[in-house]
């Protein structure tokens, strides 16, 4: 992920720069480049909004032009709404993540335009690909940091991170414990006259077995179920 | 997408409610439910932040409890960080989108916790599945509206493929039927003296709720379970 950069082209609101830094850090991306921020630099609101990603805001690199900002990169993606005159291959965020990953260790940049009007054709002309995030036709304007969120999320899914947490699941009960519980239930339900029509009993037991085999219960949960049944039978 | 709801559990900041509404509309989801918003309701900052999604904020439904908010739903997903004591299948946003899509036309809800602390174990016990958004171990705390963004984006990617679903699943029971069954069990277990140590009862009920919310039961299966319990109680 250290080879991936987020490039904001003429962003207008400091809050959006801060929210961008925060979500970059959530997905393990740390290089932020900003071209001609409207309100100058540094920007207090960007720092405030970044929460625990103040380090990313603090070391953001400021440029005058796209050409300068992407000079050291190997591949650039322009994230923008679909337009009528497409000059670049139009791809999805997933495809962009896949293409950039296959190019590793290339340096890769993702450009995002200003809040009011996005990237123009001139901006997009600096990119290898035009990425369009699929959105509802009812409301196509994504917040800047939300667009960054989608791209970083797709990159993070693609690029396995070293040291990311692995889950430790509770061991499940042995199947025999489930089967014993079901036999116990069958006996007790017989005693209570639950199976009124003998011919239907087998089918009813299949239904009951489906209910309790689907649960992926831990050993403790099987004990809890047994305890519940014993209490009810008292 | 009209069968999908976003459920915010005790959200603290109006800005995040507004940003949530905006990104919901970007991805074609319109039903917003809010449980006990900290600053009351309506909330001017939510409306201001929602931009062109003011309609979603205006018709958001306010509830006191999770049980009420999800009563008419068939399947509930809890979006939360990974925890040590997992009681529910832990799935990715993609898997959640896939599972919910295969259950259509089931009514599906995605729960998100308060900004400061997320969903607690009691909240999660109302869900069928625990969804965890993959994030960097360096900074795991996603902004609320960014978490909603990732889920809505994955749903939007999945759902336009109408007609690709071939299997027809049995419709699931409404959550209120599960809640009524659990209330019935709690009452009857109380009568039987099952909860011997009063201080442990709440925790035991969370365990029991987890066992029975995970089952994806059909209406018929809930009736079967009620029949089993009634027979045992005779």
Q: What does this protein look like?
A:
Two copies of one chain form a homodimer. Chain A has 234 residues and is an alpha/beta fold. Chain A is 44% helix and 12% strand. In chain A, β1 (4-9), α1 (14-26) and β2 form a beta-alpha-beta unit. The longest helix of chain A is centred in the last third of the chain and has 17 residues, at 175-191. Chain A is elongated. The N and C termini of chain A lie far apart (60 Å). Chains A and B meet through α1, α7, α8, α9 and α10 of A and α1, α7, α8, α9 and α10 of B.
Supply database-style keywords.
10 helices, elongated, homodimer, alpha/beta
Give a concise summary.
The structure is a homodimer of 234-residue chains. Chain A is an alpha/beta fold and 234 residues long.
Relative helix content of chain A: 40-55%
Distance between the termini of chain A: 60 Å
* H/E element order of chain A: EHEHHEHEEHEHEHHHH
The largest interface is: A-B, 61 and 61 residues
Q: How many strand segments of chain A?
A: 7
- State the low-pLDDT regions of chain A, or none: 162-166
Structural class of chain A: alpha/beta
**Biggest sheet strand line-up of chain A:** 3-2-1-6-4-7-5
Overall geometry of chain A comes to elongated
Sheet having the most strands of chain A: 7 strands, parallel
